[in-house]
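call fold target=Hemoglobin-like protein HbO
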Amino acid sequence: MNYSILAHNASYVPPVHKPNPTFLTQVTEQGMRDLLSRFYACLDKSAIRNIFPAIDGKEMEEAAQTSADFFIQICGGPAYFNQRHGMPKMRQRHAPFSITAEGRLHWLICFEEALHPLESSVNEEDLQSFWNYINIFSIMMINR
């Protein structure tokens, strides 16, 4: 598995491609929810914890499940995010928060940590397709 991180270039965002739908088939919806719970647990202890408003562990878990709705949808599953939260418009939703290139690196490190348990059960090509998606998605989210 290649967890390399693309360099950020403020004047260029590479094209983003959705993950292989077979990623979700292998991970399952519950597995995606577990992945996002691990990811948010890492964020809660990370250097970018300050991006989140003063919320407790229960609210962090709720944020993880909202994020899982988004990733389930992006990976070809049901449109939970649209049904529960409206159109994603992720850049607009994150505009109030300071997302820097350095913060992006911390975000990706937490995602890598959360993905490691899947390495033995998910086809490497599908896992790589998910990583490639979040790698470029994270570039698109930088706003400061």
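return ok
The chain has one domain: 21-141. The domain at 21-141 is CATH 1.10.490.10 (Globin-like).
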